[in-house]
Amino acid sequence: MSGPKTLFDKIWDSHVVDVQEDGTCLLYIDRHLVHEVTSPQAFAGLRAAGRKVHRPETVLAVPDHNVPTTDRSRGIPDPTSRIQVETLRRNCAEFGITLFDMDDVRQGIVHVIGPEQGFTLPGTIVVCGDSHTSTHGAFGALAFGIGTSEVEHVLATQTLLQKRPKTMRILVVGELGFGVSAKDVILGIIGRIGTAGGTGHVIEYAGPVIEALSMEGRMTVCNMSIEAGARAGLVAPDGKTFAWLRGRPMAPKGALWEQAVAYWRTLPSDPGARYDREVVIDASELEPMVTWGTSPQDVVPITGRVPDPARERDEKRRAAMERALAYMGLEPGMPMEEIRIDKVFIGSCTNARLEDLRAAAEVVRKSGLEVAPNVQALVVPGSGLVKHQAEEEGLDRIFVEAGFEWREPGCSMCLAMNADRLQPGERCASTSNRNFEGRQGKGGRTHLMSPAMAAAAALTGRLTDVRKLVA
Amino acid sequence: MQPFRKLTGIAAPLPLVNVDTDQIIPAKWLKTIERTGLGRGLFESLRYREDGSENPDFVLNREPYRRAVILITGENFGCGSSREHAPWALLDFGIRCIIAPSFADIFFNNCFKNGILPIVLPQETVDLLMHEAESAPEPVFTVDLEEQLVQRPSGNEPIRFEVDPFKRQCLLEGLDDIGLTLQKLAKIEAFERSQRLQQPWLWPSAA
Q1: CA distance A301 to A281
Q2: pLDDT over 70 (residue A325)
Q3: Does pLDDT of A39 surpass 70?
Q4: In whole numbers, what is the pLDDT of chain B averaged over residues?
Q5: Which of A30, A27, A2 is nearest to A12 (CA)?
Q6: Average pLDDT over residues A411-422
């Protein structure tokens, strides 16, 4: 392909091993992250066929979905969870794969530890049997989630068969207002384009607001690309990216680092490069956002009200709204700030990095308030290293003194595979990525929001405009 | 993988949009290390009541849809996580074809890897088929992948569908992707030699 190229084009084109007659490409995979939930059947498949892992040194494994976030000294009490984690341990030993086990300080959520270790690098293709692999796109890596059959395919061949997706650029212009964060940007985007808006596309986020975001903020945005239907989200690598990666344990060193950076500087989209679709979002219009329903596109500003299905013209959409409101136990027209909550979850691959914990702790510290009576609030760091750094900064003390629970790293209540979950009917202010029915526990009700907003909700016992607490 | 050529059987109507993978198979079922046995957890929260008994209102608990091999549903089916447990659960229940106006990308791919055919048709056509599945006395459809046609219980004109030619071939023959790709090992190794020279930082052992 000649002419100006997008960041996506450059990464894709440099990874094509073979093209079939119908255009299906065999793509080379540089980095493969593995966790305990979506890998056991893949390893079993390899074993059954007598195949080995093609390049074990490009694979990094970690247990995160099933791990307890409380005392781990006695292992995992739930036998099925324990078997899954033990199976990962056995598979990694047998196939020669690096594992950050439960007692390793580097253990954490797979999408937190990849970047943290410098395993994720610009210009690479990164996959994982997990849809939130899109997170790694923040570094200018083409990163997407795959199923277990594809996990097996990558392990055995270091490649994947893929059709070239379409491209979409989301230009975020303007300036973020006070109290508005990366999470609000991505929730605003999903509210605008819908959960199928990015289907079949790779999204490149660009514009002054994205450039101004920290790497953590860019990860939050890219993380939820999948909630917009896109398998991957990308941000062009820049000086901030390189500074963040420099010196990380698995990042290149010395002359190789210089050589890598020189290449990475050529990756941003060329002027005049064309996208299949372009969307412009004015961030100045965004407020702290919250979800009211059971789809991540059910977004309103915290200053808004629960929408009224009667005003929806599309019949299928109206039925879905009615169903969502019944599940959520909400009435149309109710101000969002009047919604009372039972639990708060600050964590997940969307928002469990140091910056997220700092933002939440800042709200606690500035407000001087404590967790509201009858509210249980969990803070679950994204990795052992995040936890350690947060403790060095004293964030754990701010949380614990205000009545939050300070936990061990893992996916936790984002999807309730370990012991952390909502009871039927319980309502949660959550920094995670999905508010689907039953996602945080059967019958549980989830409102998605930023870490600062979740902290504010914990302190008042209801959904709260954080700007009022910290002004 | 079991080949998919022609499938004849009951089609169940599921007129919901944005059915996510947590609805198809809740996370608690993901703790298995097997591919089989997930049919019991399929659509768990829709299919069972609080006390664990069947919800008689749910389509797959009603005759003749208990025996469904085809599912007709709304847009963006399979959105959410990459869990292949979703197609495994559908397959374990007996569903081998899903017809919808659109699918989420990862789920769509995962279906083909498991001998399930996802068919995309325009909303109006899906509505038509949904209606027939709801109202025909014996809602038996035939999905013919070779001819790319859906034959309807009404006997009306069959519906033509499009499918990616390579994916179609893999389904028809029940091909093992990995075996096919390994035939290209020489090309993969040539790529690796070239990348190792151009981007040595991705090859730590070369340093």
Answers
A1: 15
A2: yes
A3: yes
A4: 96
A5: A27
A6: 95
Contacts of B42 (CB under 8 A, 6+ apart): B24, B25, B60, B89, B90, B92, B93
B201 contacts in A (CB within 8 Å)? 121, 252, 256-257, 259-260
Of A259, A323, A437, the CB nearest to B45: A437
Domain residue spans of chain B: 6-175, 176-207
Q: Which CATH class is domain B6-175?
A: alpha beta
Q: Which residues pair with B160 in a beta bridge?
A: B149
Amino acid at A200: G
Q: According to the model, what pLDDT value does residue B206 have?
A: 42
**Band of pLDDT at residue A316, cut at 50, 70 and 90:** confident
The burial of A462, by beta-carbon neighbours within 10 Å (0-12 exposed, 13-18 middle, 19 or more buried), is given as: middle
CA distance A247 to A252: 8
Beta strands in B97-205 (DSSP E): 97-100, 117-120, 140-144, 149-151, 159-160
**Nearest residue, CB atoms, B79 vs list A26, A28, A229:** A229
E-only strand ranges, A305-398: 343-346, 376-379
Residue B114: list chain A partners with CB under 8 A: 149
Query: Mean pLDDT across the stretch A15-27?
Result: 96
Contacting A residues, span 246-285, partner chain B, CB-CB under 8 Å = 250, 252-253, 256-257, 259-260, 263
Q: What is the mean pLDDT of residues A64-79?
A: 94
* Half-sphere exposure at residue B146, Cβ-oriented, CA atoms within 13 angstroms: 5
Taking only the tens place, the pLDDT of each residue in A457-466 is 999 999 999 9
Whether A327 contacts chain B with CB within 8 A: no
Q: Residue A406: which of A357, A343, A351 has the closest Cα?
A: A357
ipTM over 0.90: yes
H or E, element range at A49 = helix A40-49
- Tell me the sheet residues that pair with A205: A170
B202 in contact with A, Cβ within 8 Å: yes
- Please tell me the predicted confidence (pLDDT) of residue B205: 63
CB contact (8 A) between residue A17 and residue B80: no
Share of chain A above pLDDT 70, in %: 100
pLDDT(B164) > 90: yes
Q: What is the pLDDT, as a whole number, of residue A1?
A: 53
Q: What's the burial of B88, exposed, middle or buried (CB within 10 Å: 0-12/13-18/19+)? A: buried
Nearest to B27 by CA among A159, A411, A109: A411
Exposed / middle / buried, residue B127 (Cβ in 10 Å: 0-12, 13-18, 19+): middle
**Min Cα separation B165/chain A (Å):** 7
From B27, B106, B113, residue closest to A145, measured CB to CB: B106
Q: In the predicted model, what is the mean pLDDT of chain A?
A: 97
Q: CB of A462 within 8 A of CB of A337?
A: yes
Of A156, A250, A436, the CB nearest to B178: A156
Furthest C-alpha separation in chain B: 70
